[in-house]
Amino acid sequence: MSRARNRIAGLISVFGELLITAGLVLGLFVVYSLWWTNVLADRAADKEGAQVRGEWADEGPGALDTKGGLGFLHVPAFGGDEILVKRGTEPSVLNNGVAGYYTEPVRSALPQDEEGNFTLAAHRDGHGAKFHDIHKLKNGDPIVFESKDTWYVYKVYKTLPETTKYNVDVLQPVPGESGKDKPGRYITLTTCTPMYTSDYRYIVWGELARTEKVDADRTPPVELR
């Protein structure tokens, strides 16, 4: 009986150690996913962003670049960091700490288009987490997109805190789900929700308020000062 008890105690001890080890491994994985991927993504985004700005300086004002980097998103509610915007929303794009504009299932308009919906996605957690603070955006808040030669100033007019990941209606040229029924110049930000999951999507809609030409000093609009 004593030997059996000792065996059971030994097995319990081993099982406990395995659980502790598994917990440590899981903890390290979480640290990697939510911290180290941010570090790597931010480094990549900073490098790409500097390259885009360098090309702008060399080429001077001109048309939007839809290949390397379209421009930079500035959202005061997110803090002072700028977000490089590139083409596409696949992981190979978004995992590099940028926002991407949709090419499918509904093709995004671009800011310079006379009408349409400029639709963007970015990670909320890990890989730069550029839209982590999307819940801080309120009606009337500015969202500013900076291209090579123009500032596009949008104002938030509607948020949708949760919708299915399959809801493509939020990306339509006229986002009817936001209450709009006429063509205009809109912007839509999309990301995962709740935090640390990808079960649903959080949506923010804005409408173009005005544009400003970029001057020689790239003086930002008043919303960013």
TrEMBL record:
Q: Do you know which CDD domains this protein is assigned to?
A: Sortase_E (cd05830)
* Top-level taxon of the source organism: Bacteria
Supply the Pfam families for this chain: Sortase
- What is annotated as the active site? 123 (proton donor/acceptor), 192 (acyl-thioester intermediate)
The regions listed as transmembrane in this protein's record are 12-36
Q: Which InterPro entries match?
A: Sortase, Sortase_Class_E, Sortase_dom-sf, Sortase_E
Swiss-Prot/TrEMBL keywords: Hydrolase, Membrane, Transmembrane, Transmembrane helix
Q: Which GO terms describe its molecular function?
A: hydrolase activity
Q: What is this protein called?
A: Class E sortase
Q: Which organism is it from?
A: Streptomyces filamentosus
